[in-house]
């Protein structure tokens, strides 16, 4: 996995050595690993190129996958569909106050919009009910 270098001694014998970065390459971030490989190639000065990243070795980020509910997220889906089924606003409010957005921060805005709309809808229902009774 780590490339071994040959260090020649003054008496003509050779010794296999590993750089310190190669020993701990599995615990450092991928970007630092690539930087370390480039730095080692430049220090050696042998004129060889080092493969920085393989095309097949693509590391996807945590948020590269699409959001659920047709890609718009549960929060915005609940917000839009809540105008037809207002119960969905309360469901999204429950998710918002349950910190569902910690799984994927992209959900936070839609869940907050649904929570605010649920509060407004509740106030509207309260005003309608109070004025009917009086």
UniProtKB/TrEMBL annotation:
The chain crosses the membrane at residues 74-97, 109-131. Keywords: Membrane, Transmembrane, Transmembrane helix. It comes from Eruca vesicaria subsp. sativa (Garden rocket). This is Ribosomal protein L18ae family.
């Amino acid at each position: 996995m780590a490339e071994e270098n040959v260090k020649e001694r003054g008496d003509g014998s050779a010794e296999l050595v590993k750089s310190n970065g190669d020993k701990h390459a599995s615990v450092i971030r991928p970007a630092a690993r690539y930087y370390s490989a480039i730095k080692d190639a430049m220090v050696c000065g042998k004129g060889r190129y080092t493969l920085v990243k393989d095309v097949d070795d693509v590391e996807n980020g945590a948020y590269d996958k699409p959001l659920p509910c047709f890609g718009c997220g549960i929060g915005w889906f609940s917000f839009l569909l809540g105008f037809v089924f207002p119960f969905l606003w309360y469901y999204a409010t429950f998710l918002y106050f349950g910190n569902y957005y910690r799984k994927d921060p992209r959900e936070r805005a839609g869940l907050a919009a649904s929570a605010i709309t649920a509060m407004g809808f509740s106030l509207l229902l309260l005003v309608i009910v109070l004025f009917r009774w009086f």
